[in-house]
Protein: DsbA family dithiol-disulfide isomerase
Amino acid sequence: MKVEIYSDIACPWCYLGKRRFEQALERFEGRDGVEVVYRPYQLVPDAPEQARPHREWLAERYGPQSVAMDARIADLGRAEGIAYDFDAAVEVNTLLAHRLLHLALTEYGPAVQGALKERLLRAHFSEGVDVGDRGALTELAAAVGVDRDRAAAYLAGDEGTAEVRAELAAGRELGISAVPTFVFEGRWAVQGGQEADTFLTVLRQVAAETGTDVPAATAAEACTDDACAV
Structure:
């Protein structure tokens, strides 16, 4: 089974959804046969390349309610073992980070890409790292096994830019307008940072639909709240 996860490094719900999906995958009987690939999405495609404090940026976009928005996701994150630090976080254009994820996938495979995705999210949301800084990105890549010199040279040029932009366009053509969105076998999609139980139900339902020999859930269970068909 192939699961393509459309998400952005700047999306707190993407971090939460990733963690909950991984919890479901650990409980899924057919987990050894699941390939997880991360696809790019940009919440703010025209975000500047110069990082800005998260609190300031969010307040400009959403006003006074931004404080409550951060508080809610921080509470949810603690329950999943995620330490959001919105006071330290900075916002910046994420295209460079998506390019780096593309490099990790194409040259090192899904496992390394997944490790890099986790490292990027933690750096952005918990450590106040500027994920638009080439030097910082190079070190994050090296920490998960990507060759440091290769990562630095890759980020210094425009390699991978056209491919990532093409993937961003493909996501829009699929109708993906919010993240995280989890696409199963290119046919079924679940949107949002669902509970782990919901993801587990979907995994079992997709396995049943595709003939994988694992326990199945009902279609009604698989299509809850933000679940939808591509």
User: Anything to note?
Assistant: Residues 2-229 form a domain with the Glutaredoxin fold (CATH 3.40.30.10). Confidence is low (pLDDT under 50) at residues 215-230. The first strand starts at residue 2 and ends at 7.
